[in-house]
Amino acid sequence: MEYSALIFDDCMDETDSYENLENATRIFQKEEDCKQIVVSCTTEWLLELSKHPLAKMLLVQMSSTPYVALLNGLKAITQENVVVVGLSRCLKKEDVTSILKELESYPAVFIDKDLQAFDTRLLMFSLQLAIETNVQIDSYAMAIEKLSNTPLLKI
Known about the structure:
alpha/beta, 7-stranded mixed sheet
């Protein structure tokens, strides 16, 4: 299954690390089915990444407003499926494989705050509904839980 990877983190948790960011980009760069890597995080880390650009990587400035940040990250996605990664733990290839397997049969999969996968259309619909109904959200998982008829599959 082809997909986009969205590395999305405000880099405020003490466990967030640039090493975790580099690790995640390496994993997705090697994955043939990953057609795009979108990174949305702090300006400092984006500037560091821009020194060594990768072929399928797109850098998106993280907004200080949660909803705008969520929307900007998702607007850059080109594939029908997206794997969303945070930076407070080191990503493992096995976890990506596991979540993609679940995503083949279910449109909203949640391992933890640092690894989720979604049908991009479902996620965009939920964010659009948040705008229309003025519902405050601060994560992609919250958008699905509050505004979708599709519950998160938690694994």
